[in-house]
Write a structure and sequence with these properties.
By secondary structure, the protein is mostly helical. The protein contains five helices and no strands. The longest helix has 21 residues, at 2-22.
Length: 80
């Protein structure tokens, strides 16, 4: 399952990169429209600051493992 996720993510990355290289103007227009529909301008500075705070957290690695690990059926039932 992990390899499938990796293949899908890689394929999406390659597809978007090729599309950006072949159709830069169209994708830029699409990005602006998606931003407008999504609620306006993105706060890039705030995003970078939040990422920095997360990466500097001592327990970041443990939190990352907890988020991306697979849950057992019993754990999933407890959460929901």
């Amino acid at each position: 399952m992990d390899k499938l996720k990796l293949y899908i993510a890689s394929a999406l990355f390659i597809l978007l990169t090729v599309a950006k290289l072949l159709f830069p103007a169209q994708l830029d227009t699409l990005r602006r429209e998606a931003g407008r529909l999504g609620g306006g301008e993105t706060d890039y500075k705030g995003t970078v600051e939040a990422i920095g705070r997360c990466l500097s957290d001592r327990d970041f690695g443990d939190k990352l493992v907890a988020v991306f690990r697979e849950y057992t059926k019993e754990e999933t039932e407890e959460i929901t």
